[in-house]
Every structure is written in C-alpha cells, then in structure tokens.
Amino acid sequence: MAEIIDMPKLSDTMSVGTLVKWNVKEGQAVAFGDILGEVETDKATMELSCTVPGTILKIYAPAGSQLPVGAPICAIGKKGEAAPAPGQPAPAPKAAAPAIPESTGIPCLPPAPAASAAPATQSDGSRAKVSPYAKRMAEKAAINAGALAGSGPGGRVVARDVAAAASAPAVTAPTGPLNVAVAPPADGKGIQPDADVPVGGMRQTIARRLLESKITVPHFYLEVEVDAAPLMAMRESLNKRLAEAGGAEAVKLSVNDFILKASAEALRRVPAVNASWAGTSIRQHSAVHLSFGVALEDGLVTPVIRDAHAKTLKDIAVEAKSLIGKARSKKLSPAEMSGSTFTVTNLGMFGVTGFFGIINVPNAAILSVGATIKKPVVDAHDRLVVGHRMVIGLSGDHRVVDGANGAQFLQALKQLLEEPALMLI
Amino acid sequence: MATPAVLTHPESLKRPAGPSEYAKHPVNTALSKKEKAALYTKMARIRHFEQRCIRIYQQGKIGGFLHLYVGQEAVAAGTISLLGKHDHLITGYRDHGHGLMVGMSMNECMAELTGKVTGCSQGKGGSMHYFAPDKNYWGGHGIVGGQAPLGTGLAYAVKYMGLKGSCLAYMGDGAVNQGAVHEAYNLAALWDLPIIFVVENNGYSMGTSQERSTAHPGCLAKRAEGYGMAWDVINGHDVYEVRAKTAEALKRAHEESKPTVLEIFTYRYYGHSMADPDKTYRDKEEIKEYRDQKDPVLLFEKELLAEKVLTAEQVQAINEAAMAEADEAAAFADASPDPTVADITKHIYWEEDNRGPKTTSRGTIIFE
Amino acid sequence: MPVISYREALRAAMREELKRDEKVVIMGEEVAQFNGAYKVTEGLLKEFGPKRIVDTPISEAGFIGLGIGASMLGIRPVMELMFWSFSYVAFDQIVNNAGNIRYMSGGLINCPIVIRGPANGGTNVGATHSHTPEAILASHPGIKVVCPATPYDAKGLLKAAIRDNDPVYVMENTILYNDKGEVPDEDYIVPLGVADVKRVGTDLTIVAHGRAVITSLKAAEILEQEHGVSVEVVDLRSIRPLDEETILASVRKTHRALLVEENKPFCGVDAQVAYLIQSKAFDELDAPIHRVSSIDAPQIYCKRLEDQQLPDVNRVVREALKVLA
Q1: Inter-chain residue contact A132 with C325, CB threshold 8 Å
Q2: Contact call for A159 and C283, based on CB within 8 A
Q3: Helices in chain C by DSSP H: which ranges?
Q4: Residue A186 pLDDT more than 90?
Q5: How confident is the model over A25-29, as a mean pLDDT?
Q6: Which residues are registered as beta bridge partners of B195?
Q7: Residue B88: helix, strand or coil by DSSP?
Q8: Which of B4, B172, B286, B355 is deepest in the core (most CB within 10 A)?
Q9: How does pLDDT run across B37-72, given as a tens digit for each residue?
Q10: Which of residues C136, C155, C182 is at a domain's end?
Q11: How many domains does chain B have?
C-alpha cells in the first residue's frame, strides 16, 4: 500500500514550506532515514528525512513548490505500484525556484519565532480555509480572516491566528499585490532585469514581523555615544593573550562579543528592560537570552545565546561564533532561534555610524550598535584629542520601558563599555 | 413427506350446521333473553362496522392495511362475553371485532381507521393497533405472534398481584409457527400462568393454506401437549360452543392458574387484508359455502329466532340500527380533525409528556 | 463514603428498589439460584425469595416479552440479559412492543420496564457475544438507553431507570464489574439524560460513554503530562435522553471535540453527537470533530487483536493530537 508523504511540519510555527530541492527521483528506491530533499521553512532550510522505505512512486510537488503543511509532496510504495491520487491537490507550484535576491542591505530586525506566513486565501484564488470558530471570532473583531496566515492543518486559519491578529491594532493592509509598476529604464539597459522575485518563507516572516512590530509596538529611541578606546585596548590585549595560549584557548574576541557581554551585564543592573508586554501584564524574565542578528544573502536570522547573564565573555564568543556558522549554512534548529529576551544588532562593520532597529517582539528593546570611528573629542582636561567613539541606539517598547529605564540601561552599558574591567566582576 | 395430518376438528364441525349442541350448556342457559339479544347485537355491529369499512377503504380514506373480521364474529363475541373484571385480552392485527366486543365505540374505532385525532389511539395506531386498556384490551399488535409473550406477561401480572383473573391471547393460525408463540407457551406452562391462547384458525396464514405452511397441520391446538398444556378445539361458527368451551378454559385459569390452548375454527370472507386480491389461493365456491351454511351471525340469528329470543322484525331492527351506527361512525370520522404536526412527538415517552420535578429524565429525548 | 464495585453498586440499586416498591421484580437467566451469570444479583434470591427474583428459561423473546406485558399492567420488571447480544433474538419485543406501545395507543399504555446486562467487547468471546447495541436501540423513539461508566453512576442510573415510567435499557460492561468507586449508602438517583463532566479542561473536549470514559480519562492524563494539553472529558451516561447542553457547553469552551466510543463507527452514537455539535455549535469549532471507535469489523476473537480493535489509550491520544493540530 503506497503512502503519501505530506509537507512535514518542521518548526513550531511552520505552516508553509518551500521544497528547495529533491535529492531523489521518481522510481528511485529509498530507505528509512535517507534524505529525500530540503525544505525551507519560515526559519531555516531543513532536511527531509525518509520515514517510509520503498520506491518513490510519484513526486507531486516539484522543487520550488511552496506548500502548506500537510499537502502531499510525494508517494512512496512498492516498485511498480500505481501512485495514489493525493487526498488534496497539491497547490500549483511557483513559476520558478525562488531566485535568491542580491543582498541590498541588511534589515535591522531579525525575524522572531512567531506565527507563520502564507495567507489562507490561496494564491490560485481558491477559498480560504477558516475554522468556524475562527470565522466567528474574526467577524466579531472585524478582521478579514481569509487574509490571515493559517497555522492549522493544511493552512486552516484557526482561533489562535485570529487572536494574534486581534491583539494588533486594526491595519488596513492591502490584501492584493501592490501596484509597483514603474517605467522601464530610458536607456533600455537598467541595473537589473524587471522581475517579481518570489518571496520565501524567511522573507515573508521578516516582512510580517517587522510590519507587525512597527505598527503595534510604540517605539521610542535613545542614543548614547561611548568612548570605545578602553574597549579596543582591552580587546587587543585579550586577543593577544588568547592567541599566545593557542589550542582550545585560541578564540578571537570581536567587538560584538564585548557588546553582547556588556548588554547581559547591563540587563542584570536594569532588569526592567529584560521583559515583555503580555497584553494585560508585563512579564519580567529572570534569564537573559540574548539574540543577535546574522545577515544572510536572502535575509537574516536571529540565533539566541541562552542564559547569557551567566556566561563568560569567552563562552559568549565561542557560542556566537558557532551560531553564526550554523546560521550561514541554514542549519540552525528552531530551538536555537526562539525564546530571546533582548536583541543586539550591529551594522558597525559596514561603517554605519548610528541607527535604530525595529523591536524584535516580544522583546522590550533592541540595541543597535554603530561603527567605532575616530573623531575629535574634548577630553576631561578640555583638550581636543583623537577619540574612538561608538554610537549606540536603543529602541524601546514604551508599553514596557519608559525613557528613564531606557536611559539607565544605556548609562549602565556605557559604563561597562568604557570600563570593561567591570564586566569581569 | 410429513406425517399425514390427523385432523383434529371439533365434532360439531364434522356434521352439517344445525341447532347448537351447546345451547343447553350452563354458561348459555345462564344468559337472559336480554343478554342473548345483546350478544347478537354485538355480533351484528361487528359485521356492519366491518362491511362499512370496505366502502371507506375504497374511498381512499383508510390507509395501509385493513384486516376485516367478517365471518369470525362468533370467536370474539363468544370468548369476550365471558370475561370479568380481572380478565384481560390481547390480539394480533385483526383486532376490530375484539375492540367492539369490549365496548369500544364505533366512532373511536372508525376515526382511528381514517387517522383522526378522535380515534382510540388518536390516529397513531391505525387498523392494526386498537387499544382500550380501561376495558382490559391491550391491543391490537402488528407483528404476527409478537403479542403472545405480552399476553403471558399480562397473565403473570394478574397472578403476581394475587388477582383471580386471566389473559386471553388471541392469534391467527399463521402465528403458531412463530418462535415467540412457543416461548410464550413454554413460560405459561412452566409458571402456571392463567392464560388462554386462542388460535383463531381461519384456514389461511395470509394466502398460504395450513397444508402449505404448517407441519402436521391438522392439530394446531395439540401442540399444547408438547408443553403439557390443556387444549381444545372449537367450532367457531357457533357462538354457544365458543362460550361453552372457553368457559372451561377460563375456569382452569381462574381456579387452577393453568394455561390452555384453544383452537377455534373459523373463516374470513374477505382477503387477508384489503390489499389481498383473494383470487389466488381459494375459490369463490368455498367462500360461498361458508357464507351460506356456516355464517356465525346467521346461525346465531336462527338460534335466537328458534328460541324466540328475537323476532324477525327485531333482527331487522338490530341490523338496521347497526348499519345506521356504522354510517354515523363514518360521518363522525369524516368530520373529525387530523392530529396536528405537534401531536407527532407526543405520547412517545411518559416522562416527556409529564415533565416535572419528580420525573427521572432530563436532557433531550425527542430529537429534531 | 463506602467504596464498592460496579457490580455491587448495581446490586445495591436493585436491592434498594426491591425494598422500596413491591412491584419490582428481577427476572432473567440464572439470576436467582445461580446468583447471576456475572454475580450481579448474588444473594437477592435469599433476601427476597422466588416471587421477586425469578429464573427464566433461555428464551429471551419469551421472557422479555412477558416482562413488557407485565409492565403494561404496572409491574416493574428488571430483566437481566446475560449479554445484550442476546437481545437480538428478542428484538421484536424490545423495539416493536416496548418502544411503540405508548405511542400506538395514543398514550394510553405505559411500559415501565428495565432491561439490563453487559454490552461490551474486549472479553475474548467472539462476535456473537460482544455487541454494543446502544446506538441501535437509542435510535428508536420510545426507548431510553443509559451506559454507566462508574459504580456511582451504575447505582444512580439503575435506580432512576427502575423508577422511570418508560422502557429503559441499561448497558453495563463486564470489564467494569470489578471497578471500585465511592458510592453513597443512602438513596440517590442519577437522573436520566444528565451527562457528567468527569474531568475539567480547556483545550479539547472528549465525549465518551461507558468504558470509553475510563479510556478517555487515562488518555487525558497522558495528554496533560506529556503534551501539556488540558482535556475535558464529558461522560454522556445517558445516550437517550441525551444531555445536549453539557456537550455543547464543553465544546463552546474548548472549541475542539473528540468523540470516543466502543461502538463500531458506522451510525454509532457519536455520529449523532457529531451532528449535534456541528448543527448547534458550528461556529464554535476550531477544528473538525474526530472520532475514535472500534475498528469496523465484527468483534475479533483473538484477544491481542481485540484489544486493538477497541479504542485504547494510545489511539485516543493520537487522535486527540490530530484534533489539536
């Protein structure tokens, strides 16, 4: 008896997956555990492991298809057996495999682990699947349930999806494609072809989460300039020592590692910032789980260093390095990308002097770190000297954090960065 | 081949019909002239009621099945005329005669046939399901033989309550091949129940003659011997004989609490039901012979004329009155209203019809 | 409160009602001298004598019909079927006579009979002795059907059934006969048609009856411990009358429903319950209703397989997770 293999649910929030590639062909024998192909979820590209030994009878979903969880992707059975008709028709595959867009800059907000993408209104115009209860809830809340992303089986919009949407202020988001057509280049040559680039799961999540955060969270912004000279000196000294030690000790500390460590310590001193808005209450978090943005070619992800408040600078450096490696090869597990309490983004390496990130909900704040640049400063003796200055921005959720808390946090952070030895205590 | 049948017919049936040999039986001599005239009147009423039904059926006012009792009147009349306060009866679907005998009105009987709310069962039972528990009449049952165990239950209840009574459980000759009847026989004999199983043998189980339906056909009553029960055969054309022999069985029930099987030989003039073309299994000559020579109403009429209980004029008057009563019943049924749609869901549960703090049921009993 | 078995609870119900009402008679195969095929009526003959406790021949159509006839005259027979499977030879009596007589007589005749006995699979006795006819019988207006799952309910429902003025068919379960639970000594009834929330929860409603309630409660515990899911278990107790409000109230709370029964799935009790939920709480549903029933085949003899044919805890957990997806 042939078995139909469905689009698997590979993360807690996955409702739609993109079949990035198939490793097998129709007619090919497969054993339990064979890697049949790769699926891109809203968070990562993951391997599709074979759970039914046999022969691939039919591939319903060609590479490049974007399918809801539960949609049939292939059938496995005995060699020569007829492939069964899939229980539900596989949605028409996208025209082409998603072209990976050139990196055009790095968004400041990484995708948070949260509800998935994929609107319940099918791209082919078929009826949106909405549970009766969700439909009624949506009617009460004046929400267009058909336009929501369904997290239920087969992309069904269920109560939790409506509840999430209802907790956000009403947004009149365009449901159809925006009119973005512009005149072709006068010289006919242009910088790139006119094209509609299909949007993958990660991009959709980024788009949705950023929009949701920017619209629903009352951001406020604080900025402080830090004297980075002591930090630079300490970093140089420590790296020299670590390099000399060699072997397992051979870790190179980045500026970002210091900022992560300092952030964890600053949160310890001003824990009000280590919190979340919970609708009717503010949830204080006892642990600091630090998330930081890692830019990828087609987006970005936010791996999390758990219990950063209890880790040494070196621990943090080693773990960050490992997470960055996994992120770039898209091997991060969902668990490694979820559950943060505070986020650090850094565009210093691009020479950006200062900026404000969009809060990574449900965090209460995000730290945006600029480049360390040399500039003339007036020192304690009123002399004009060459300074190493770094501008740090804090975007805060005003529902959770007020200006004064935010300022105290930045004050603590500034102190730690300017007297880095304090981090050691 | 089955063993050749040994016909066990009542002696009186072996001779040409004449004056009843049982006229002098004490149960009959005990009847006053008035009581005899009343008994005749009841038989005539059954006859005319049933014949009136034919026309109404043919007018399309009676639906479904209509099983007529014409020809069998002496069975119900003879047996039921003997019953007292604690004697109960139950029968199959040929139940009009019994109903009229226990005192149901022609109006309620006719209105039931036409499905009117004024019917004895408020239009919910129909021809096969007459009931008058206030007159000890427990129906009126549509499934052949299914009433036999109920009859044993009625007899059981009478005995349990310590009453001197009985139950007469009627059935047709077709029913004796039903398992439920044999189970009832066994229980009745096993527990000494005061019951009389009355087999109204009209010769045909629907369209199948006894020879074609029943092993060892000549002795339906004799099957009682297999259960150690008393039995008797009765000429059902002679109401005096019916009364005389039934009285013995009743005495057995009342005095000894013992069951009896009575096989009463009778004949129906019409088909099994009105849906029966009555052409395939018997010929007209046979029907004519019974009508002319063994008609129970005519025979009793002759008897009473000879006894000078009634005059020819009185007989005519009784028959005319019965016909008029049947006409009036037909008019009553015509004029009566149908039950309402809301009535459909009444009388299903006592608990539903009597909802109150003391009833033990809650929840939804009747569903949309 | 005394802790007694389901079997003892049934016996207590009969004993109390025999004492309360002299019209109550216990009747059935082996109920008196033999003390009951499953010992439910043990000791009653000694206590009440042969008039009240009556052994019948193996003759279901006969003695059930007799009981029905007697009930028409006001006796309150409590008839034991050794197995409800044996009701099939008495079907005409049970359905046509008991179920119809009040209706066909326009309300003139009542039939206050109780028929009780085990109706369950899972005892390795093959298809003919493993029928669960509650759905078949409850589909006939005029008849009431109850399926107690616990000793408390067994006593309360049987007493209510005996006092009820309509035919009530009590379907027990031999596997539950030794289950123990708290049962008050004093007189109480569990009204027919009142379901019982046996476990309170918020994420999923499981509707069950009979032994499936016990299975569902075990599954609910696993769902809580291993999956962090809060499950409400509604025990129907009565199939007809059906407590629609308790079912609907629970579904309105959890928005998801799983229906569990030991019947075969086709036209089972839960087919009716599923219809009820979708018709009266359609807008409350956040997921399709799922069912767990016996595997759709005559009851298999082989014990290992029969245990799998019936709904077991694992199957209920698996199906619950599907409803919760």
Answers
A1: no
A2: no
A3: 6-20, 44-48, 60-72, 91, 101-104, 134-138, 151-163, 211-227, 244-254, 269-280, 303-309, 313-324
A4: no
A5: 91
A6: B167
A7: strand
A8: B172
A9: 999 999 999 999 999 998 888 888 888 789 999 999
A10: C182
A11: 2
Point out which residues pair with A295 in neighbouring strands: A300
Residue C189 in domain: no
- Read off the pLDDT of each residue in A164-192 and give the average, rounded to a whole number: 68
| Separation CA A225–CA A9 (nearest Å) | 45
- Fill in the DSSP letter of residue B67: -
Task: Classify residue B6: in a domain, yes or no.
Answer: no
Digit-coded pLDDT (tens) for B307-365:
999 999 999 999 999 999 999 999 999 999 999 999 999 999 999 999 988 889 999 99
Q: B346 and B330, same structural domain? A: no
A367-393 pLDDT per residue, tens: 999 999 999 998 888 899 999 999 999
C-alpha A80/C-alpha A166 separation (Å) is 51
Q: Are C233 and C217 in contact (CB under 8 A)?
A: yes
Instruction: Please indicate, yes or no, whether residues B134 and B53 belong to a single structural domain of this protein.
Output: yes
Contact residues on chain C for A135, CB-CB shorter than 8 A: 283
DSSP state of B64: S
Across the range C257-283, mean pLDDT stands at 96
Please tell me the least confidently modeled range out of A9-13, A92-96, B233-237: A92-96
Range of the domain at C26: 3-182
Phi, psi of A327 (to 5 degrees): -60, -45
Residue A11, domain CATH: 2.40.50.100
Q: Is C58 on the interface with B (CB under 8 A)?
A: no
- Structural domain boundaries, residue B348: 338-368
Give the separation between CA A153 and CA A15, rounded to whole angstroms. 8
**Smallest Cα distance from B256 to chain C, Å:** 18
The parent domain of residue A408 ranges over 218-424
Q: Which helix (H) or strand (E) holds C257?
A: strand C257-260
- Each residue of B148-183: pLDDT tens digit? 999 999 999 999 999 999 999 999 999 999 999 999
CA distance B78 to B236: 9
**Which residues sit opposite C55 in a β-bridge?**
C28
CA distance C307 to chain B (A): 33
Q: What is the pTM of this model?
A: 0.68
Contact B201, B263 (CB under 8 A): yes
* Per-chain mean pLDDT for chain A: 82
Contact B361, C164 (CB under 8 A): yes
B162/C321 Cα distance (integer angstroms)? 62
Q: C273 — contact with chain B (CB < 8 Å)?
A: no
Q: Is C252 on the interface with A (CB under 8 A)?
A: no
Q: What is the CATH number of the domain that holds B274?
A: 3.40.50.970
Q: In chain A, whose CA is at the least distance from the CA of C252?
A: A133
Is residue C246 over pLDDT 80?
A: yes
**What CATH number should be reported for the domain holding residue A381?**
3.30.559.10
The verdict on C67 and C132 lying in the same domain is: yes
CB contact under 8 A, C286 and A132: yes
Average confidence (pLDDT) over B249-263: 98
Q: Cβ of C238 under 8 Å from any chain B Cβ?
A: yes
> For position C281, which CATH number holds?
3.40.50.920
C91 and C232 assigned to the same domain: no
DSSP A101: P
The dihedral through the CA atoms of B169, B175, B177, B181 has a sign that is negative
Distance CA A57, CA A80 (A): 8
Q: Which residues of A touch C203 (CB under 8 A)?
A: none
Amino acid letter, B163 = L
**Number of domains, chain A:** 2
For residue B12, being part of any structural domain is answered with no
Least confident of A3-17, A234-248, C305-319: A3-17
Q: Say whether the C–A interface has 3 or more Cβ pairs within 8 Å.
A: yes
SS3 label, residue B343? helix
A8 and A39 Cβ atoms separated by less than 8 Å: yes
Whether A52 is in a domain gets the answer yes
